[in-house]
From TrEMBL:
Lineage summary: Bacteria, Bacillati, Bacillota, Bacilli, Bacillales
Transmembrane stretches, start-end: 41-65
Alphabetized UniProt keyword annotations: Membrane, Transmembrane, Transmembrane helix
The name this protein goes by in its record: Uncharacterized protein
Positions of the DUF5643 domain: 224-330
Highest taxon above the source species: Bacteria
Domain DUF4179: 43-130
Amino acid sequence: MSKQHFNEEINKLEFPREEVMAAISNGIEQGRKEKRPRNKASFKIAVTVSAIAASVFLVSGLLFAPVTNVLASVPIIGAIYDRFSMQIGYELFESNLITQLNEEAKSNGIEMTVTSAYYDGNVIGLTFKAEGNRVSLDRIGEQEEPDVGYSFHLSDSDEQKQWSSSTMTDLEKTSNGYVGAMEFDNPNADLPDNYTLPLTFTSVTGVKGTWKFDVPVKRIPAETIAADDESSFEEYAIHIDSITKGKATTLLNYRTTLPLTGKDDEINIIVFDNKGNRLTKSHTDVMSSEQNDSIVKNDVRELFSSKIPENAQYLTIQPVINQYEQETVSSLENRAPFTVTSPRLDYQIQVNDIKQNGDQLILDYNIQNVDTEALGKDIIQNFADFITLIETNDIVKDKNGQLDMNQMINHQIRSKQAKELENDNLHFQSVFTIAGSDFATDDYSLLIPFGTLSSNNPVEMEPIKVELK
């Protein structure tokens, strides 16, 4: 058989491209959600293997009709959750826990239909379809609605304002209309088991209208396990209060204690079950916060978009402290050499020399007291790249005496790239270009982002083991 004849025969086959691509995308997405490789080299290998697997799968789909037939028979609702890599929705669909709907609304020649919904933990998700001759993806980006192709709002009552959209997919054209999906979450501790989500679409691919829905949902029953486990490190502590096992989600309720000097620090958690499966983070809500003269206490609820297996015996929770630090200001009125030290940590830079050459200011310095093995050279390079210059008169502070970075961002001057002069002792040079050659060095200050170093060198606390049985 000639190559041309082969291609002609292949083209005659009905190939469900959208379903195949959705399956491939889902596989790659699931791979990304596994524990990440420790280095860039292994990550590149993983991507290559995924690409090879995708290629083989495509060829198999073309050559073997049974594969395409199976894919073509996948119900549209499951295919939407799969296509958009919505892990919660797809997991619930696989467990037959999605409520299929047919809620319709028409406006300006477009018919909108809410086709499915679910309510697990504190998450409501839904899929929808838009049909009509006026729906066209060609207009997306030219109108006021977001690039996803549609806009909406919820009820204006105080209760409904608590629901926020955490996922808003693009519209996609299918053989069954234009489809999309959304996910909403609510930080409230006490939510009703039966609920009606008041959703109104206000535009679809640039066509304005009113498509109003009252989407009925019933929360899927979940198991809440009380806990009383904690870990501490110096002035930091975390106490696990409860774990809620949803059918596709997991909620952890815990309390953190921070020193007042680190009120903007965070205690983040990484969670594994006893089989080594890592729970996929979704988002964190601070339910309440209080502080006194020395400490800050936060009541926290964290959502994971993956479930705990039924046979899991315990969870291992690894807390890590991410210490926050705002940029440190140092005036160039100081005569080199001089040292700038982090107010909270031991990091510092030694400014060796400052030179002016036409419209350029050349800064020569050493970065000191950093653990190059723990941070890595790329993080240190990034820190040096983001040392910026600002005219001292453009420094703005808020009412609490903190730098107002939003007011200052357009006044900062970055070097193109900090150049490392010596490999062994972190000796760098940054060159800043200032408009005009008649500037006075004394009129400028450095903004030094020591927080870049601390945020990339978190402090590990003792892990917590929480029994599930």
